[in-house]
Specification:
The chain is an alpha+beta fold. Helices cover 60% and strands 8% of the residues. Strand 8 and strand 9 form a beta hairpin. It is rod-shaped, with a radius of gyration of 53 Å. About 1% of the residues have low confidence.
């Protein structure tokens, strides 16, 4: 390895001692003798080729810088405009640009005099286009940068321009003529702010090389982009002036034209004075706010610096994802509004469609706000969609759902909140009423006390006829007075029990109907016994005649309480037919019939509670 390197002319020992040093081969130097190399440094320094562009007074030429062998651009004056003033302005531009060494400002390599004695500014040759040409050809931007989002790419270019302007401000220089036509975009995406011919110093350095803001009083700049103070001298020029021009450039990016326009000079000057360019409604609100602030008529209301504007643009680009979600949510809101409008006018709308679209809208808004808490569009869309759904729930008689929706919002219209509260109170009152109705008609209400009372009365009704039958077998006579006493006691017991247990017993329609049926039965029996006593009819016959009365009462209970009461009604009716032939069996038959009634009452009392 050492032999090979030495054969190639490499000092191996030096290589070992200094492995980080650069190796210079001799071949290239030997191929060009020193006299020939030095000859390139004598004589003419520039070889002019062809024009690259032409402006108001200047012309830019393609050239080769012979001493360095590189392609450059040379800016000089056209032959027809060579004056002392034009020469001074050209030299001042060279001084300004040469003092601003920044990646986004075209470097000045040198300044020379041509054969006419006119200055030639030697600049870096930028292979590319001026930005204004690219703005007119969005497809060229897509192709040049390999992007789909042209707006974002143009804003990123403007951010680099703002960076260059901010640097110039830090060096005390104002540009005064920022516009797309004065920005060069290279073939590889390089961005350069050019044409510093109107630049002025914010502080007079005493050299007179660059005019200061306090010494310029004439209108200067491009009217279509001009800040009001440039045209009317309303206030001293400052960084805020270039901020306005950056905002005017942003306006052209967004809207597609310069901000100031007019058919006549008066209209154009009026537009500059007003500085209230129309911003289309489809512009994202954050970007619209940046435009309004950057181009505010009053300098102190603008961004404080070009850097602050650049940061605001960067924040907007970071928020674009949230903005896209907000736009998607807004489209969903439009669909939702259409569905709800059709529903209001009586059209049939699928509830699933409404809920699906609302969910899409809400989700997009929530995602946008999660990505950027300041996404006001998303917040407004979410609020509008939620309020619309709350209104819908009110129309559907669901105030609880409306309240749940409103609980997700920080701000709720007072009128809507009041309506929801009113609907909730009305709904609660209706629920209470329905619960009362359900409790009233629920067989389970008071069933325990009904069960025991029915059992007590039922057992006595079942047992007492058997006891009377036993007394008859022992020779005791059945009398009206005993029946009247028993019926009176039954009526009194039912009335006292109804008063004592009214809160638990009489709340239910079933209990009230059973109570009324029992009172009716005792009252009818009492009436029959009193009447037959007066007519001289024996008590046994009266007892047999009670069976049709009980059949009728049982039928009424079957219709008003439970169909099972048809069973005792039928038994009472059949028993009456039987007893008309064998009245001697009246008390055993009465006991059996009363037992059936007791079993039916127990069955009704054991029915499960119904839901409110």
């Amino acid at each position: 390895m050492s032999a090979t390197l030495e054969a190639a002319g490499v000092d191996v020992s030096e290589l070992q001692r200094h492995p980080t040093a650069t190796i210079h081969p001799d071949a290239a130097i030997r191929s060009l003798p020193p006299p020939a190399a030095l000859a390139r440094l004598r004589g003419a320094t520039l070889m002019i080729h062809h024009p690259l562009g032409e402006g108001g007074m200047g012309i830019v030429l393609s050239a080769t810088q012979l001493r360095l062998g590189r392609e450059v651009a040379v800016k000089t004056l056209r032959q027809d405009v060579v004056t002392d003033r034009a020469v001074t302005e050209l030299v001042r531009e060279a001084w300004v640009t040469g003092s601003l060494e920044h990646p986004n400002i075209i470097p000045v390599h040198d300044i020379e005099l041509d054969e006419r004695g006119v200055p030639q500014i030697v600049l870096k040759r930028v292979e590319g286009d001026d930005w204004s040409a690219l703005l007119r050809e969005p497809d060229a931007i897509r192709l040049r940068f390999g992007v789909d989002d042209v707006l974002e790419q143009n804003i990123r270019i403007l951010m680099q321009v703002s960076n260059a302007v901010s640097f110039a401000h830090s060096r005390g220089i104002l540009h005064r003529d920022i516009k797309p036509a004065n920005v060069m975009v290279g073939s590889f995406g390089e961005v350069y702010v050019a044409d510093w011919g109107l630049a002025v110093a914010m502080e007079d350095d005493g050299t007179g090389r660059i005019p200061s803001t306090s010494s310029v009083h004439r209108m200067a700049g491009t009217p279509a982009y001009m800040a009001p103070e440039q045209a009317f001298g309303q206030s001293e020029l400052g960084p805020w002036t270039d901020v306005f021009l950056l905002g005017a450039t942003l306006y052209e990016i967004v809207v597609g034209r310069a901000p100031h326009r007019g058919e006549t000079l008066a209209e154009l000057m009026a537009a500059i004075a007003a500085s209230e360019p129309e911003i289309p409604e489809d512009i994202p609100s954050e970007l619209a706010d940046i435009l309004r602030r950057a181009m505010h008529r009053t300098p102190r209301e603008r961004f404080a610096s070009a850097e602050e504007l650049r940061l605001a643009l960067g924040a907007f680009l970071e928020h674009r994802g949230a903005a896209r979600l907000a736009a998607s949510a807004k489209a969903s809101l439009a669909t939702l509004s259409g569905l709800l409008e059709r529903e209001v006018h009586g059209a049939s709308v699928d509830d699933g469609d409404v809920q699906r679209v609302f969910s899409q809208c809400r989700f997009a808004c929530q995602q946008a706000l999660e990505a950027w808490a300041g996404a006001s569009d998303a917040e407004a869309t979410l609020s509008e969609a939620t309020l619309s759904m709350a209104e819908r729930e009110l129309r559907r008689g669901e105030p609880s759902s409306a309240q749940a929706l409103l609980a997700t919002l920080a701000v709720v219209p007072g009128e809507l909140r009041a309506r929801v509260q009113e609907a909730l109170v009305a709904r609660e009152a209706e629920v209470d009423r329905l619960r009362g109705v359900d409790r009233t008609h629920d067989p389970a209400t008071g069933r325990r006390i009904r069960f025991w009372l029915a059992g007590l009365i039922g057992v006595s009704w079942t047992a007492s006829p058997l006891l009377i039958e036993v007394g008859r077998s022992m020779g005791r006579e059945v009398t009206h007075s005993a029946a009247i006493t028993w019926d009176s006691f039954g009526i009194a017991a039912l009335l006292v029990g109804g008063v004592i247990f009214r809160d638990r017993l009489l709340q239910s329609v079933v209990n009230r109907r059973l109570e009324l049926a029992a009172l009716t039965a005792f009252a009818m029996q009492l009436t029959l016994h009193v009447g037959d006593t007066l007519r001289g009819v024996d008590a046994l016959t009266t007892t047999v005649n009670q069976f049709p009365v009980w059949a009728a009462i049982a039928t009424g209970l079957a219709l008003g309480v439970d169909g099972f009461f048809l069973l005792p009604a039928a038994i009472f009716a059949l028993s009456y037919v039987l007893l008309c032939h064998v009245p001697q069996l009246v008390f055993p038959t009465m006991s059996a019939c009363n037992l059936v009634v007791l079993l039916v009452i127990i069955r009704v009392s054991r029915r499960p509670a119904s839901s409110p």
